[in-house]
């Protein structure tokens, strides 16, 4: 994806990719939903504040590869 927009914020079927994941997680009625943010975190946290303000975010400072989350 050659875009300045973080991958998770790209739209599909009227919702961001991240929005689809959060919506799917919400159906399980979890006590908490935590999203790990790194690259583009300002855009991602702003988006989450709009679409799912109940979601918690955690910043991953060290990112080795795009799938490296802990």
Largest sheet: 2 strands, antiparallel
Amount of beta strand: 15-25%
Tally of strands: 4
Distance between the termini: 24 Å
Which parts are unreliable, with pLDDT below 50 for 5 consecutive residues or more? Answer: none
Quickly count the domains. 1
Tally of helical segments: 2
Query: What coarse outline follows from CA principal-axis ratios?
Result: globular
Description:
The protein is α+β, with helices and mostly antiparallel strands and 70 residues long. It has one domain (7-59). Helix content is 30%, strand content 17%. It contains two helices and four strands; from the N terminus they run ββαβαβ.
What's the arrangement of secondary structure elements?
Blueprint (H helix, E strand, L loop, with lengths): L10 E2 L2 E2 H10 L7 E4 L3 H11 L4 E4 L11
Parallel strand pairs: 3-4
Antiparallel strand pairs: 1-2
